[in-house]
Amino acid sequence: MEPYACPSCRNKMRFHILDQQPVSVKLNPQTGDVVGYIDEQDLMAQPYKGEKRLVQCAVCGLNGGELLFVKAAQRSEFQGM
Ligand SMILES: [Zn+2]
Asked: Which of 23, 61, 62, 80 could form a disulfide with 8 if both were Cys (CB 3.0 to 4.6 A apart)?
């Protein structure tokens, strides 16, 4: 892992980490039941492009993608915070 910093409150120690594990499904449009899973050859579907890891600051509650917190840590090192 890389160092995190909260860009809002500058917390560097306490975080909630949410690893995303998307499940790509096909639903029955009438019932909502799962009828199958999207495979890689499915021309009607794009692959998941969202965040792989979400982070919430456990001090102030700010939410964001992991990169937001990694970049804030890099900036704070640069600025000697
Ligand atoms: Zn914070």
From this structure: 62
Q: How far is the CA of 24 from the centre of ligand 1 (A)?
A: 32
pLDDT of residue 81: 52
> Helices marked H in the chain — which ranges?
66-79
Ligand 1 centroid–CA 14 distance in Å is: 9
Ligand 1 centroid to residue 67 C-alpha, Å? 14
pLDDT tens for 35-71 read 999 998 999 999 999 999 999 999 999 999 999 999 9
Chain centroid offset of residue 46 CA: 18
